[in-house]
Amino acid sequence: MRMLVLGGTGHGSGWIAAEGVARGHEVVCAARGRSGAVPPGARLVKVDRSVPDALAPLAGERFDAVVDVAYGALGWVREALRAVDAGHWTFVSSINTYADTATMHQTADAPQVPPVHDEQRVELTDTTPEHYGGIEVASEHAVRDAMGDRALIVRPGPISGPGDKTDRFAYWAGRFHRGGRVVVPDDPAQPIQHLDARDFAQWVVSSAEQRLTGAFDAVGPTLNFLDTLREIAEIVGQDNTEPIPLAPAELQTAGVNHWQGRKSLPLWLPESFYGLVSHDWSATRDAGLTIRPLAETVHSALAEELRRDERPRAAGLTDAEEAELLG
Ligand SMILES: NC(=O)c1ccc[n+]([C@@H]2O[C@H](COP(=O)([O-])OP(=O)(O)OC[C@H]3O[C@@H](n4cnc5c(N)ncnc54)[C@H](OP(=O)(O)O)[C@@H]3O)[C@@H](O)[C@H]2O)c1
Questions:
Q1: Which residue, 228, 245, 234, is CA-closest to 191?
Q2: What is the three-class DSSP state of 94?
Q3: Cβ(8) – ligand 1 distance below 6 Å
Q4: Which residues are CB-neighbours of 303 under 8 A, at least 6 positions away?
Q5: How many CB atoms lie under 10 A from the CB of residue 46?
Q6: Alpha helix locations (H) across 33-112?
Q7: Atom 23 (ligand 1) nearest CA
Q8: DSSP label at residue 272
Q9: β-strands 159-160, 180-185: how paired?
């Protein structure tokens, strides 16, 4: 099939384009080319979606399947729907569209935040989760309105795997690899979910081939966070690792952040966000999503951590920050 990836140079969308090529499809990627190169075998059409009539270079082309990963960008989504002729349309939305962030085991028909009809692109760093989620909800509506029963809405939770620039997994793989006393959050109840970008891509492309429609959460099974950290430590395989659980209150008093970014314990969340990392994955599994063993995700994260050049790590504690906590 002829496939258009609106993106294709980044993490998730790059793996989608690569999967399309691997399955023998003709893959066209439309992006600026700033996030990276397109995978070998795909063709890049350089576009900047922030300018008017951005997709004019695609005028007159017909695609069997389109995958759009625009985020926080209702205007871009609408413009793509207007400009591109497609048989099937996958819009990659987000788990952040759900109104209830706390309740576990929700399904894709759970209530969403109200739509926000801001046309301009907003950066995730410049907005609130509700605002970002609202733009994603409005984008989902625009896709459904334009494509009707040819629309697939995909809502990923955290995406892991090779090329993940958030370093959420790389931090833990690298930290356990260095061994010694490792600060972990003392929260035995926290769930976690992730989906390796390679599994995500396989499912998105095979769903487009089958013209799957409806809304699905792109998540793996719900895991226990501390058990997952223990498993990562075992996979990494240092004998001298000693996890040191510290109480959430103590971590917060010391200024340690949740989830990602500087001075954080990556993937750690307060109870009010447990719902975002524990959606019910059974519908997506039944629609064909398969999950690779955690070891493959951890080995790729560790390989990237060990190859790390001058790029500072995007998440986690520095050695000095961890030593201060342990002291
Ligand atoms: N990563 C996660 O944990 C996560 C969680 C929930 C949902 N999601 C969703 O999953 C999808 C994939 O996420 P990702 O972070 O891996 O994204 P990604 O694949 O890195 O995709 C971003 C793409 O947008 C393109 N782009 C950015 N600005 C552009 C512009 N002005 N004009 C044209 N193209 C532009 C980038 O290309 P250039 O920079 O080369 O232009 C890149 O190819 C997104 O829809 C995201 O919302 C991700």
A1: 228
A2: coil
A3: yes
A4: none
A5: 11
A6: 74-83
A7: 7
A8: G
A9: unpaired
User: In angstroms, rounded to a whole number, what is the distance separating the alpha carbons of residues 152 and 209?
Assistant: 12
Atom of ligand 1 nearest to the CA of 10: 20
Domains in the chain, CATH or no CATH each? 2-156 (3.40.50.720), 168-193+222-274+293-326 (no CATH)
Spatial contact of 96 and 132, defined as CB atoms under 8 Å apart? yes
72 lines ligand 1 (CB under 6 A): no
Is residue 261 in contact with ligand 1, taking CB distance under 6 Å?
no
Q: How far apart are CA 20 and CA 140, in angstroms?
A: 23
**Contact between 9 and 36 (Cβ < 8 Å):** yes
The 8-class DSSP code of residue 75 comes to: H
Question: CA 280 to CA 106: how far, in whole Å?
Answer: 6
Residue in 4, 5, 6, 13 to alter for ligand 1 test, most ligand atoms within 8 A of Cβ: 13
CB 191 within 8 A of CB 278: yes
Per-residue pLDDT of the chain (327 residues; tens, 9 = 90+): 999 999 999 999 999 999 999 999 999 999 999 999 999 999 999 999 999 999 999 988 999 999 999 999 999 999 999 999 999 999 999 999 999 999 999 999 999 999 999 988 998 888 898 999 999 999 999 999 999 999 999 999 999 999 999 999 999 999 999 999 999 999 999 999 999 999 999 999 999 999 999 999 999 999 999 999 999 999 998 889 999 999 999 999 999 999 999 999 999 999 999 999 999 999 999 999 999 999 999 999 999 999 887 678 899 999 999 999 999
